[in-house]
What we know:
This protein is an alpha+beta fold. The chain has helices at 3-9, 74-84, 106-113, 141-146, and strands at 15-20, 33-39, 45-49, 63-68, 90-91, 100-103, 122-125, 132-136. 21% of the residues lie in helices and 25% in strands.
Amino acid sequence: MDVNVIKARYLKGTRIELIEMNDLYAPVLEGTKGTVEFVDDMGQIAMKWDNGRTLALIPDVDKFKVIKEVKMNAKTLLHKAKELMKLEEIDSQHELGSDLYLKVTPISTALIEQYDFKENVTKFRDNINHEPWYEIPFGNTDWWESRGCPCGELQL
């Protein structure tokens, strides 16, 4: 799995319940719950387990389930998209508008799944390459802030 997809899917604060850990020496016990701290550049999910342990999860090796996702506001969505996606996969109509457009990719799909207002997000195909994009109404927080409108705090 692409590391940036993992980073988009498991945001800091996401709550996880362990089903099985593949660690021969000192695994965290099944059923233990914990909170995501961050995802490193190898795709390991750094955890703070409720029992005080800090052993990381390895996706596709360890078995676990998300029990509570972190929901992102528009400002965090834009910040994470800029951090994890390619520049050509992000569009905002520049100076023209307040909407944000993200090319449909595994990364953008993971981000949209955690967006607080995902019910307002629509998909369309562009007129040039006929590729699918997400339209996030009012998601271009840079546009709003350039006009003096506060967009809230980043949720990192």
